[in-house]
Amino acid sequence: MPSHRRSSRRPYGADHVPLDVDRARGGLRHVSADDGEWSVRRATGDKTYRCPGCSQEIAAGTPHLVAWLRDGIGGEVAGLEARRHWHATCWDRRARLR
Ligand SMILES: [Zn+2]
Predict the structure, then answer these.
(1) The whole model's pTM is what?
(2) Number of domains in the chain
(3) What is the extent of the structural domain holding 91?
């Protein structure tokens, strides 16, 4: 997994204040969903990704979320290799749908 530079820049609007616990974990969150336990972290890519939530592109340089399954077949290593890049809004919508 490529390392991502830490950035003090906020990935959301300037009026968005991250939760302290989120900040303390370096942006890594754990999310329980119907299909498993996910790790989610913020990222800013240097290339274009395709969001599985809306099938639209995430342009290079756009802050977004990277999500991978921690308890799937093959464990977290396999999950990391199959990690997907999501628009933050699409991931939130997915989380609300569960
Ligand atoms: Zn999307």
Answers:
(1) 0.69
(2) 1
(3) 29-97
